[in-house]
Amino acid sequence: MKNIFLFLAVSAAFVFTSCEGPEGPPGEPGGLVYGQVFETTENLQYDSASATYTSPFISFPVEVFESDVILAYRYEGSEVVNGTSVDIWNPLPRSYFYQDGTSDIFEYSFNHTFFDIQFVIDGNFDLTIIEPEFTTNQTFRIAVVPAEFATANLTMDDLMQGLQIDATDIEQISK
Known about the structure:
6-stranded antiparallel beta sheet, 175 residues, 2 helices
């Protein structure tokens, strides 16, 4: 009987003894990348072949994957809220009624690939009559968001909070 207990004790010692091996390689530095936001100011040029205004193609400064979602916003100005000036950003596409009493409508939209983005103004009337304030020095923010994080109808503030990005962190895309 003593031999059985001795055998069980030795067996238990082998079974319950943990083995330690060499440590694995260190992980990559930094946290998870939830997405990135970039800002660019563009002059849209009239394209008579398509009867639209278009920006040049703007290359993404980061790698964009097939599963990523591209969101774009147009700067509309700023307003004072509780004594603080805040920016107004409208998500694209965005339609505008051009003149009161008419059915003239134009729309800001965008096209993109995995490499670049282009902004477009399209409308149901002769766009050459719209004022330069709609085509010159237009500021856009572009967000590259992983698909699992993206949801519909994000405001710029919702997006910035969700991505944990401050306005000072936004990279300007150089031309």
